Amino acid sequence: GLYRVLEVIEEDLGQIPSDTRAGWPSATRRKLFERTANSFQAVGGAARHGHTKRQPPKSPMPIEEARELIASLLAKWISEK
């Protein structure tokens, strides 16, 4: 479900800003979230995809960090609305 929140925000903004000074999560953290969420090898049955075409991240993002990332992204997005 966390990835769906990201998709809604991306659809609304077109592209999520990467300006960490303005309070947006970095593109690097978002990319790690995406790679982790999409990797069956990283998160098992909770992954968005079942294939193993791509290598999982060497250090997948822990679920607690993923929740924090999406919560901060959601809060920033709402504050911008």
Could you characterize what this model shows?
This protein has 81 residues and is an all-alpha fold. The chain contains four helices and no strands. The longest helix has 18 residues, at 63-80. It starts with a helix and ends with a helix.
Describe the secondary structure blueprint for this structure:
Layout: H1 2-13, H2 27-38, H3 40-43, H4 63-80
Helix pairs in contact: 1-4
Query: Total number of helical segments?
Result: 4
Span of the ends, CA to CA:
22 Å
Main sheet, how many strands, which sense, barrel? Answer: none
H/E topology pattern: HHHH
By DSSP, the count of extended strands is 0
Rg is: 13 Å
Low-confidence runs of at least 5 consecutive residues = none
Shape: elongated
Average pLDDT taken over every residue:
87
| Helix residue percentage | 55-70%
State the secondary-structure class: mainly alpha
Strand content: under 5%
